[in-house]
Amino acid sequence: MRCAWLLIGVLAAQAALAQRPEYRPPRFEIAPMGGYRIGGEFDVENDDGSNPRSVDFEEGGSWGFGLGIYRDPNGFYEFLYSRQTTELDDPDPVLGSVDITTEYYQLGGTLLFDPEPWLRPYLSLTIGITRFDADGFGSEIKPSGSLGFGLRFPVGERLSFLTGLRGYGTLVDSNTDLFCSSVNGEAVCLVQGSGDVVYQGEAVAGFVLRF
Questions:
Q1: pLDDT at res. 182
Q2: What integer pLDDT is reported at residue 9 of this predicted model?
Q3: How remote is the C-alpha of 59 from its chain's centroid?
Q4: Is there a contact between 152 and 120 (Cβ–Cβ < 8 Å)?
Q5: How far, in Å, CA of 80 to CA of 171, rounded?
Q6: Which of 53, 67, 150, 196 is the most buried (most CB within 10 A)?
């Protein structure tokens, strides 16, 4: 009798598994994010001809998103977009009133680590371009790259929350004029590159939907 009940139980379990939809690992993901960005140093010429002074972008909020195509369960190829609109942190009323938008367009990949079911650290490396746009002074496009790391907190098979840090580096020739425009027939440039690389850092938080 016991063997009969055991056989019935096994057959019932197999029937339930047969009716359960087959699990399919995710192939794509989208990750909307909000952030807070700091950094970005440039030079500005003084009116008296003395050595240029340094100015930074004002720190502030940013937003962006990531799109991923999974290579395997522990890694995916990634397109990353991040945007911030801010001003120069300078007492000059002209410089301080110009809106500057910085956009990062990046391609790369992300590795996922799996120490616990509820926690997945990640490491991301990308390369691409940076687009600087100064209102009324044109735009500049420069090569760049980024390195990011952080944590994902899965709350299901398809949804995770994330938090992380990312550093950006944009190649800008030293002493190169940027954001130039014609004013009264004369070329006027807003800032100059202060070094070979412009660095920015960003803290982000958001969520991931996997399909």
A1: 67
A2: 46
A3: 16
A4: yes
A5: 18
A6: 150
What residues pair up with 103 in beta bridges, in sequence order?
Answer: 83, 131
Torsion angles phi and psi, residue 110, rounded to 5: -130, 135
Cα–Cα distance between 83 and 22 in angstroms, integer? 39
User: From CA 111, how far away is CA 78, in angstroms rounded?
Assistant: 10
Residue with tokens 């002493």: 175
Residue ranges of the chain whose pLDDT lies below 50: 2-18, 20
Q: Are 66 and 31 in contact (CB under 8 A)?
A: yes
3-state SS, 31-82, equals EEEEEEEEECEEEECCCCCCCCEEEEECCEEEEEEEEEEEEECCEEEEEEEE
Structure tokens at 114: 């799996």
For the entire predicted model, the pTM comes to: 0.84
